[in-house]
Amino acid sequence: MRRLTALIPAMALLTTALLAAAPSSGAAAPAAPGPALTRVADTQLDNQALYFVSYDGLVNNNSFQKNGLLTYRGYQYAAWYTADRTAVVARRALGASSWQTARLPHQLTVDDSHNVISMGLSRVDGRLHLNMDSHSNGFFYVKSAAGLLDDPAGRAWNSGQFGAVQTTLDGLALTSQFTYPQFVATPEGRLQLSYRAGVSGNGRNALAEYDGSRWTALGEWSASTGTYTSEHGSSTARNMYLHGIDYGADGRLHAFYTWREQNNAVMCAGGGLTNHDTGYVYSADRGRTWRNAAGTAVGTTGGSDTVAVGDAGTVVDPLNPDHSLMNQESQTTDSAGLPHAIISYVPGRFGQCTTNYVADRTANGRAFHLFKDSSGAWKKTEIPVPLNSSQRTRLVLDRYDNAYAVLPYGRIVAASKSSGYTDWRTLFDGAGLSAFGEVVVDETRVAQDGVLSFMYQRKSTGTTPSPLRVIDFRLPS
């Protein structure tokens, strides 16, 4: 009995130690990892891709082309113009070092870097769609055979898999002043096409939709009319430039944008940009009705009341036209469906009047991360890395909602969600790429295999063709 009594305290101590070591159902989950990169591959698409500089950009690497690079069902697809101006579309199995190419029966009509190739996929019928070669004029459209994307390993890849090049969407004529095609897949697998009708400074955004059997014009949803007045003067015409158009996890269609005024009188100097303000709207009904961040309806697609420059509650980051605010920068949504954007301009500490937007942005331009937090407040942080370029930055979020900004020349900076996106730092300085400027990010791939992948073209001179490549970085898994 004395021996048993002596063992009781020791057993109690052992039990206490075991309970302390055992996991508790209420224990905190491990902290999510911060942003990180591991370079895994750098493959060549074309050793002799078409090269000319226009509007300070390249036709194969204008970052606003949605999508010049995309991933679906274990394969990645790319599109570009090769040295003889022919449109080319390629694919590879993820992880493969070589690409299969197919030449399309179309050649770029003019040396204009706006005339990009954009791709989209319609999950309802497994087709790949391409819209190309347009800047305020007609467009060229081609789609693949049905099911081509559903069974890539079992289907040959050649030009015979694509239909004829058309100047309509299967007979649907949209506008004679067409620019900036952006394909976006709906949650149900239909495909929508966003585009601008009209010209710079006097245009309207519009949507069309493909249901697997035919295209339908949904109509215009932004206005070009109304009066905007700055401290310098007024303008009565404009166009909305989208930073993107994307469906979030909640099924909402999100759009950040800036306005460009037609009348240069709104600027302090003629060499700047008439772009002003960052706006935001969303649609909860697949692009039919548009609402401001507070949920108030501000426009209807195809209706008489479209989203206009004076609509209340649409400006989420005000800025006058004197800072060379860039159009068509970048946006995405996080795992909770909250919207994020990258915008860039010359901050006021460098002066209150840009006089040459290329020179001033190259010397003093900075990018900013703008996002809506879970409380509904808009937050904005300057990315503390000079752009050293007039060109655009792309935004990607990993599975933990850490943010990665791909700057001109392929540089990558990142910030953690846990910091509230305040700890931006450089993860890759672009060394060895010799990239011209903007890059084309695969917006679809990160969610599928955790890889940040972008297309870049090496610097050249004049119109001498240069290599076009795709580089891949693994993100935290």
Head-to-tail CA distance between termini:
57 Å
- By oligomeric state, this entry counts as single chain
Number of strands: 32
As a percent range, the share of helical residues equals under 10%
Structural class assignment: mainly beta
Beta percentage is 35-45%
- Outline: globular
Low-confidence stretches: 1-24
Number of helices: 3
Gyration radius, rounded? 25 Å
Mean pLDDT: 94
Protein name: BNR repeat-containing protein
Organism: Streptomyces scopuliridis
Molecular structure report:
Strands 15, 16, 17, 18 and 21 form a five-stranded antiparallel β-sheet that branches. This protein has a four-stranded antiparallel β-sheet with strand order 1-32-31-30. It has a four-stranded antiparallel β-sheet with strand order 2-3-4-5, with no helix packed on it. It contains three helices and 32 strands. The protein has helices spanning 2-21, 357-364, 446-449, and strands at residues 38-49, 69-72, 75-81, 86-93, 100-107, 117-122, 127-132, 140-143, 178-185, 191-199, 202-210, 215-220, 228-229, 234-235, 238-242, 246-247, 253-261, 275-283, 289-291, 297-300, 315-317, 330-333, 339-345, 366-372, 378-382, 394-397, 403-406, 412-415, 425-428, 440-441, 451-457, 466-474. With 477 residues, the chain is mainly beta. This is BNR repeat-containing protein.
Short description:
This protein is 7% helix and 38% strand. By secondary structure, the chain is mostly beta strands. The longest helix is centred in the first third of the chain and has 20 residues, at 2-21.
